[in-house]
């Protein structure tokens, strides 16, 4: 089997992918520009991709292609319908990143809740050293205990967020973006009530026609003063320009691990708000703990081995 990885860089340099070489003739590309895709998969029978798009024209130009392994859960970068019509199998890996995303959600929440950027600066600037006090209370913060935690999108990750939030003593609520996922032990709220009543709000929904610009200038004003709004779903669920404008108007906090354009443009409005301490942006790392990437690769390996064993 001729196996090609189009964007191995998205798996991390620390991940051992050598077992793939035991299966077939392996070609590894750290990243692939769209102009390079056809050349790199033309002779491949198995292609592994995360973000590189494989559309109908790419499939037509790849006569030996038998299996596309998506190094992710979402398969929106593949023309699935056309691949199936050409007899090409497409496999993803589901559920590998749940614990990683949950952990990163709480890391972002605590960072903002406890004003950790500010207190880290207080110490490293030597302001605390010269204060004469054993503590610094200049930026009061509250506890997660007793807070209302609102969850937008209540799939596997959203439900796990609710259980962990409960363990910390928070009160979980959720809003189903599909309008169908309504049978849970936690209370369901309309989007408007969730935004206006919850102290911490985290988004774990897919991006689709119902969630595009779900949070925008028409409802951002509902977010409470000092509340925390987190997006670990998909870029585009929050209108980022509207968010930047609202953060300059009022004191609440936002944490984003996903953006419409990744990496972020240096001129992005969120990079230039008047109060930068109100926003925390991480470079789409919520999914990427060492353990999650190991699970992802193991899933890819299983998919390839199962495909070969089936003889399809």
Give your account of this protein's structure.
By secondary structure, this protein is an alpha/beta fold. It folds into 2 domains: 116 residues, 3-Layer(aba) Sandwich (Rossmann fold); 184 residues, 3-Layer(aba) Sandwich (Rossmann fold), CATH 3.40.50. It contains 9 helices and 11 strands. It is elongated. The model has no long low-confidence stretch (mean pLDDT 96).
Provide the fold topology.
Elements: E1 2-5, E2 25-28, H1 37-41, E3 46-49, H2 56-60, E4 67-70, H3 80-85, E5 89-91, H4 98-113, H5 116-124, E6 148-152, H6 156-167, E7 171-175, H7 191-197, E8 200-203, E9 228-231, H8 240-249, E10 253-256, E11 279-281, H9 290-310
Parallel strand pairs: 1-2, 1-3, 3-4, 4-5, 6-7, 6-8, 8-9, 9-10, 10-11
Helix pairs in contact: 4-6
The helix content, as a percent range, equals: 25-40%
**What is the strand content?**
5-15%
Task: State the CATH topology of the largest domain.
Answer: Rossmann fold
Strand order in space, largest sheet: 7-6-8-9-10-11
Number of domains: 2
Concise synopsis of the structure shown:
The chain has 312 residues and is of the alpha/beta class. Helices cover 29% and strands 14% of the residues.
Feature tags:
312 residues, Rossmann fold, six-stranded parallel β-sheet, five-stranded parallel β-sheet, alpha/beta, 2 domains, elongated
